[in-house]
Design brief:
By secondary structure, the chain is of the alpha+beta class. It has helices at 2-6, 49-57, 63-71, 76-80, 92-100, 106-113, 123-137, and strands at residues 13-19, 23-30, 33-41, 83-85, 90-91. The protein binds FE2/S2 (inorganic) cluster. Belongs to the Bfd family.
């Protein structure tokens, strides 16, 4: 099957394949953009549709994204969000999780994840994430529950 697919590809296409005992993946790119992904497995899979959409509609694929497609596993960029702190490779969703766990200061995030503790250029974005995540997780005053009932 792989040879049959490859022989019909345009001359400027590049491809990678991975064939295991239970799965076959064929990834085709042109100018490093995804044009075709054939992901077959002998059992039902749970490949997130929005992940595939983001790869088809995104910029050039990174090596990690190509490997993710071949392995049929979403890459860290999809699962954990973009890198916010490049010094320590700390991603957005990891930071949001830490904020939700109570690390709601830049210093607290630095203590928990090291982000912001080297060059400091990510501190503004850390503060923005704290503000936006805290705003989402705090209940609206009218939504706060109480055990008091008006009679
Ligand atoms: S980018 Fe976060 S400390 Fe440098």
């Amino acid at each position: 099957m792989v040879a049959e697919v490859i022989k019909h590809l345009p001359k400027d296409a590049q491809w990678a394949t991975l064939q295991g005992s239970h799965q076959l993946s064929i990834v085709v790119t042109r100018k490093n953009k995804l044009v075709l992904a054939i992901l077959l497995e002998d059992k039902p899979t749970d490949i997130p549709r929005d992940w595939l959409d983001s790869l088809y509609n995104g910029d050039e694929l990174s090596p990690e994204q190509i490997n993710g497609l071949l392995e049929q596993q979403p890459d860290d960029a999809f699962l954990l969000g973009k890198v916010v702190c490049s010094c320590f490779g700390v991603r957005e969703n990891t930071i949001k999780q830490a904020i939700a766990e109570g690390n709601n200061t830049v210093a607290g995030l630095g203590k928990a994840l090291k982000c912001g503790t080297n060059c400091g250029s990510c501190k503004t974005e850390l503060a923005s994430l704290i503000e936006s995540t805290s705003a989402v997780s705090k209940p609206h005053p009218k939504e706060e529950t109480t055990n008091e009932y008006a009679l």
